[in-house]
Amino acid sequence: MFVEVLRSQWKASLVTMSIVAVAAFALPLVSVQPAGEASLSVYNTVFIMEELARYSQWFGGLALATGLLAAVIAWGNDHRVKHVYPLILPVPRWYYALLRFTAGLVILTLPLAALWVGSMIAAFAATVPVGLSTYPHALSLRFAIASLLAYSIFFAISASTTRTAAYVLVIAGIVVVGQVGVGILGVDADVMGEFFRRLTVWPGPFEIFTGRWVLIDV
Amino acid sequence: MSRQGAVVLGLAVMGGIFVAPAPLLAQSQVELEARVRRLEARLEQARLRAPQFNAQLDTVRSGQFTLLTPRQDVERITEAAQAAWREIRTLLRGDTNALGSMTAAILQVDRLASASQLRNVLGESVPIIGLAGWETRDDLAHRLVEHTAAHVFDSVVSPGVREWLSRPATFDSVTAREWTATYVRLASTRHARVRDCYAGVIDSCKTVLWIATTAEPNLEWYPLDEARAVWGESRVPSCQPWRTDAECRAWLRDQQPLPPLDMSARHEVFRLALAVGGDGALGRFTAADGSVAAALEAAADMPIDSLVAHWHRGVVEHRPKATALTRHSAWAAVTWLVLMTLAASRSSRWRS
């Protein structure tokens, strides 16, 4: 049964994942363009580091987008048929969900492998200033874990009912209303900032997306 | 000779003394009139010039600024000067006594043709700041802050300290971005002395920061093999492989100082000294008439080794966060991944 699930998911995601894979392959190569000068002085090093750091958000964003697209495509067919066919299958729901999840993991290997290959080529081709090192494996591992985490989060959201989505929206709404409320009351409190800080600082779920994503570093 | 004859002779001699040069001082009527006409023309020019500047220039005072500015720009210059003074007080943490009075003239750039005339009136000691029409209040405030930095630079008593600073430095605390940039410079250097500094050898840091002065700094900074590698690559003839050590050494000796760490690192030490030195730090620094180390010690009110160690600590603490995944981040991500997977596998669709 897993093969059938994988085949249907693969067909649905082939075009999208191919485009993502191309982007994942190209991003490391583009990011090391500042390090392409034949002669580098020590004074260029800081400039190169700053230019490389500009691509940090692109790596994090691509990891998030990769997971999101894989998760949306995983449940796309079932959403279209309003989950009638999957629900009549003679398998427990949790088993079916795990089949879908695992099929998505297999499909995700395509963009993850593309990024790893792109990183290796970029690390080999770039002119690395003295004192800096390349981190293709570390970057690829981080991208993989971040993509998988994003995939699992959006997979869980896509697998849920409309009621669950409403719960999520209510929570977000409470945070926004809370921020507006403290502003009206004149209380000096940053509700939204604290909420986002909890999400993006360890042990929050999005901590892995923050920080520097650079192929060449000290 | 009778008495009368002697008196006459004396008078004649004295008359000869005074009368004889008379032909040299005498002038014709024509010459006199020409001279008078020239003097009257100069007087008229001066009369014209005085009201030109008196009518066009007004004085703006804000804090310790005294600014001469055309009347039509007074409002804009006043706002800019107030903003600049607020910023300067913030940057110097209220310690502005050392600045003294700062006077400058501000002219629109299209009127700089009259700057030389203004220079004749004001003298060389009053700087003239050119102002472009498109510059905003904030632009001008920034220029005034830069002018203050230049004023401080000029106030430094010791020529050695001025040479060490090289250019006017700002007064604000070193930012995290600057610390990180310095970390990258230290970590990625190809110079042995800077590597030693990065490793924590304070004496090496004092050397590369040009605080420990020597008679031949280039020879102190660059071991010969490193000099041959660095300047040999740059095709300096004296340091090519086929030249002797003495030739390369002689070339280094003849060059201007070539510090392996650029001016920004020295400015960081200066700014750090102001930050830790508290009230009066700037005044102590500018008034110090001795070595760079003495000036920094006076500003920071601490031994130079402690100040340099403080600087080194600041650099090391701002190491950029590594690309590599830390164990904590990885475990947190995997835990959330498992939790989300479990949440997704719950059979919510059979329940209403």
Structure overview:
The complex is a heterodimer of chains A (218) and B (352). With 218 residues, chain A is mainly α. In chain A, 75% of the residues lie in helices and 2% in strands. Chain A has a two-stranded antiparallel ribbon. In chain A, α5 (93-125) runs antiparallel to α6. The radius of gyration of chain A is 21 Å and the shape is flat. Chain B is 62% helix and 7% strand. Chain B contains 18 helices and 4 strands. Chain B has helices spanning 3-19, 22-25, 29-56, 74-91, 115-122, 137-155, 159-165, 176-187, 192-199, 202-208, 217-221, 224-233, 245-254, 263-277, 281-287, 292-300, 304-317, 327-345; strands at residues 57-62, 65-70, 102-108, 128-131. Chain B has a 4-stranded mixed beta sheet with strand order 1-2-3-4. In chain B, α8 crosses α17 (304-317) and α14 (263-277) packs across α17. Chain B is extended, with a radius of gyration of 34 Å. The relative contact order of chain B is 0.08.
Concise account of the structure shown:
By secondary structure, chain A is mostly helical.
Largest inter-chain contact set: A-B, 49 and 36 residues
* Helix proportion range of chain A: over 70%
Distance between the termini of chain A: 48 Å
Shape of chain A: flat
Element-level helix/strand string of chain B? HHHEEHEHEHHHHHHHHHHHHH
Please describe the structure with a list of short key phrases separated by commas or semicolons.
heterodimer, A: 218 residues, two-stranded antiparallel sheet, 2 strands, 2% strand, flat, B: 352 residues, four-stranded mixed sheet, 4 strands, extended
Layout: helices, strands, pairs:
The complex is a heterodimer of chains A (218) and B (352).
Chain A: H1 2-31, H2 42-53, H3 56-80, H4 84-88, H5 93-125, E1 133-134, H6 136-159, H7 162-185, H8 191-200, E2 216-217
Antiparallel strand pairs in A: 1-2
Helix pairs in contact in A: 1-3, 1-5, 3-5, 3-6, 5-6
Chain B: H1 3-19, H2 22-25, H3 29-56, E1 57-62, E2 65-70, H4 74-91, E3 102-108, H5 115-122, E4 128-131, H6 137-155, H7 159-165, H8 176-187, H9 192-199, H10 202-208, H11 217-221, H12 224-233, H13 245-254, H14 263-277, H15 281-287, H16 292-300, H17 304-317, H18 327-345
Parallel strand pairs in B: 2-3, 3-4
Antiparallel strand pairs in B: 1-2
Helix pairs in contact in B: 4-6, 8-17, 9-10, 10-17, 14-16, 14-17, 15-16
